[in-house]
């Protein structure tokens, strides 16, 4: 199979913690409110723990009361859903579960286990500015325009 990610289970077992291996390969579960990323609000991308494939941008995340990471969509072609199970499309590792009771605009609810993800933060120069920073930039630009008119 061309283009498929071939993994050797012995190597994979050596590279991952037992809980991560249990979740991604054994389709295991994670206790609610114990995952590393369930309440994270930083800006960046969530990648697959096994193949490092980019799965979800952080602005697709929402916060349900289930205690797991939840996203309303993924990067195009990054994930696939089979019988309610959410998988990475590159390495077929188990990520979580998918339902159709999520928020607008897609109504998808992709419940992902933190043990199956790696967070890659955006560099500070690429991250969008905060409201106060935008206000300061806007004020500086207005001051420059006022000085040019004089």
TrEMBL record:
Biased composition (Basic and acidic residues): 140-150
Name of the protein in question: peptide-methionine (R)-S-oxide reductase
Record GO cellular component, one term: cytoplasm
Catalytic activity: L-methionyl-[protein] + [thioredoxin]-disulfide + H2O = L-methionyl-(R)-S-oxide-[protein] + [thioredoxin]-dithiol
The keyword Oxidoreductase is annotated on this UniProt entry: yes
BP GO annotations: protein repair; response to oxidative stress
Enzyme class: oxidoreductase
Matching InterPro entries: Met_Sox_Rdtase_MsrB, Met_Sox_Rdtase_MsrB_dom, Mss4-like_sf
Annotated stretches, region: Disordered: 128-150
Pfam families linked: SelR
SUPFAM superfamilies reported in the protein's UniProt record: Mss4-like
PANTHER family in the record: METHIONINE SULFOXIDE REDUCTASE (PTHR10173), METHIONINE-R-SULFOXIDE REDUCTASE B1 (PTHR10173:SF52)
Domain of life: Eukaryota
E.C. number: 1.8.4.12
Domain MsrB, residue spans: 9-122
Swiss-Prot/TrEMBL keywords: Oxidoreductase
Family statement: Belongs to the MsrB Met sulfoxide reductase family.
Molecular-function GO terms, alphabetical: peptide-methionine (R)-S-oxide reductase activity
């Amino acid at each position: 199979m061309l283009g498929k990610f071939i993994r050797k289970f012995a190597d994979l077992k050596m590279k991952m913690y037992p809980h991560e291996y249990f979740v991604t390969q054994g389709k295991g579960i994670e206790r609610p409110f114990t995952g590393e990323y369930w309440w994270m609000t930083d800006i960046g991308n969530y990648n697959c723990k096994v193949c490092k494939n980019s799965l979800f941008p952080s602005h697709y995340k929402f916060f349900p009361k289930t205690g797991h990471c939840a996203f309303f969509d993924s990067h195009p072609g990054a994930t696939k859903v089979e019988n309610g199970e959410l998988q990475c499309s590159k390495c077929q590792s188990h990520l979580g579960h998918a339902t159709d009771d999520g928020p607008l605009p897609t109504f998808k609810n992709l419940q992902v286990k933190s043990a199956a993800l790696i967070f890659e933060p955006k560099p500070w120069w690429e991250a969008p500015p905060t409201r106060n920073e935008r206000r300061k930039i806007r004020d500086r630009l207005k001051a420059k325009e006022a000085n040019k008119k004089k």
